[in-house]
Queue: 2 jobs
Job 1
Amino acid sequence: MTSGEVETFRGPVAPADLGTTLIHEHVFVGHPELDLDFPHPEWCEDAAIETAVVGLDRLWDLGVRTVVDLTVLGLGRDVARVRRIAERVRVQLVASTGYYTADTLPAYFRTHGPGRLVGGPDPLVELFLRDIEVGIARTGVRAGMLKVVTDEPGITPDVRHVMEAAATAHRRTGVPITTHSHAPSRNGRDQLAFFVERGVAPDRLVIGHCGDSEDLDYLRELMDAGATIGMDRFGMEHVLPDDRRTATVLALLAEGYADRMVLSHDAAFFSRVTPPSWRAAHVPHWNMEHISRRIVPALLVGGVTEAQVHQLLVANPARLLTPSAPVE
């Protein structure tokens, strides 16, 4: 990794060149075994690639310059496939490493590693470091962000394993960590405490999916501790309507928290979890254009300044994505 630069699918770029950034998105979400043995009827790889190319070109026309693809293992990551898209579009794509599980890992991770049946080094640490320092799956594309998950089950033993490995990879590389949190149980607190105890500075963390919460005290607590909160599910109105998400952002901006929030959608061009037909029928605005077309105008009507919009969508992502100095 080049010091001070951010890795993208097309190589390292200066943080100042990231521009307007959607920091929590997905190009495609799948499941390798299901995709092989029980293909989704709406999935066609060539058509999906064309959809993504057209969609990313529209984003460029709307002023978006960078999209962080947080599709990691457990979500059907295929960096070689996404690279075919990255080579054709103007928008910069950032790849991620990590493991998406809310509870258990595959059995392999329980038999391999220090003190386990087969022994050897921790394969999760090896995986995350290789993805960041060498490249993902022999593509040469290096990861620019680490992703971990705690959901309703909390920090299970396997989730703890993922988080420990992510903390180690962060300390060795300086790549930032973003999370999937469970807002109803306010477990962003547990994530923050876990990582701080393991040498991760709070300002290198994004506690994701905080936009699902309207608990201002909880959100202030995370930001006052130094973390950035992800207001990153605009368009997911089946979870929380956008007008309430927007009201929360407006309230926190009025209190001076512009430097500790980021905006995004957690959208995808295809997801077998919530496929295109379902999204079109139930959440028609859940796409990567929604913030540019509807949310930013709503924020401006609510009294937000252009400088604050720049902070949320340009300055904060650039600060977060810039690797910090390794500490070990």
Job 2
Amino acid sequence: MDMSTLNIWAILVATLSTFLVGWLWYGPLFGKSWMTATGLSEEQLQQGNMAKIFGLAFVFELIMAFNLAMFLNDPSIGLQEGTLYGFLTGFGWVFFALAVNALYEQKSWKYILVNGGYWTVTFTVMGLILGAWK
């Protein structure tokens, strides 16, 4: 695989898109449902080390975007294919991997749907960006 054809700017924008989707998803859209499903309160969330959380999240999401870019690193893959493959990655792999863990952890279906839905949407958006921006 030729890494010289990867678009680093697209990878960075795809990485940053995870924060935008996360802000919407875990904020106005499903924030209350997520807090209920995890058993976390506003006070507990505010006690977290935000620099550590956001810093490591950026690194991990950059690795994910880079890996997805490697899978999509073919001239025949455009916006539609990138979006589809991003969706299949998020739903077919990540959603169900999280669901298996959640079953063993005895988490609720709400927990599975909120977190799995986030990753499905996130990978779909990343695939769209990476597929369109060659």
